[in-house]
Amino acid sequence: MTETISAAPVPAIVLVRPQLGENIGKAARAMLNFGLAEMRLVSPRDGWPNPAAGPAASGADIVLEGAKVYESVADAVADCQNVYATTVRKRGVTKPVVTPEVAAREIRATTGKSAILFGPERSGLETDDVALARTIITVPINPEFGSLNLAQAVILCAYEWSKGEALASPPSVELDPPAPQDELEGMIGQLETMLDGAGYFFPPDRIPATKRTLRTLLTKPGWNSNEVRTLRGVLSSLANPRAR
Predict the structure, then answer these.
(1) Fold (CATH) for 12-162
(2) pLDDT band at residue 229, thresholds of 50, 70 and 90?
């Protein structure tokens, strides 16, 4: 069943004090892959626009061209009714904590504007930044290695949002049907004949078990007719090599 598309405004992605232009570009690329295009920048370290962002965005120019710059987090989210802060820890702030999946459902269930905050690459959001949010987004992560880069964090949230969007899926490729049993039997019989002539089946008391193993191996993949013909051609060439 196709999910009903929500009327909720598309959330804004707010990068707070981002440090590298390359990371801003990669975040833009992650956003546009999953249907998000509104980027807000709070005091980017190297100013804006940043020439390093374009190449890293890999064509997500519409996101970079529309990016707006703010002096503070409060300014960046002033028009938003729902503000989420992405962080690994609560950092002493008592707020609801949800996963990106739950956050995406909440955003879709509201008619107000939402924003998702992402902190600087090196240190993440400060406690004062998190204090402006109403909800914290975090993900279950390896406690021994809780290191997500900026674009990875953005893509986790963007992907969950995209589940309710009418985005194109990768094209499916139909597989050829498995070959008829008689074709497969012919290939197995040809191989057994060649192996018998080469003295492969030895010792005699192991022949039935060896043939069963061989049959199991050859019937596992679900060969299609073209694959069977190809392999039989290989076997025929081995049995009757061409003169050079």
Answers:
(1) Alpha/beta knot (3.40.1280)
(2) confident
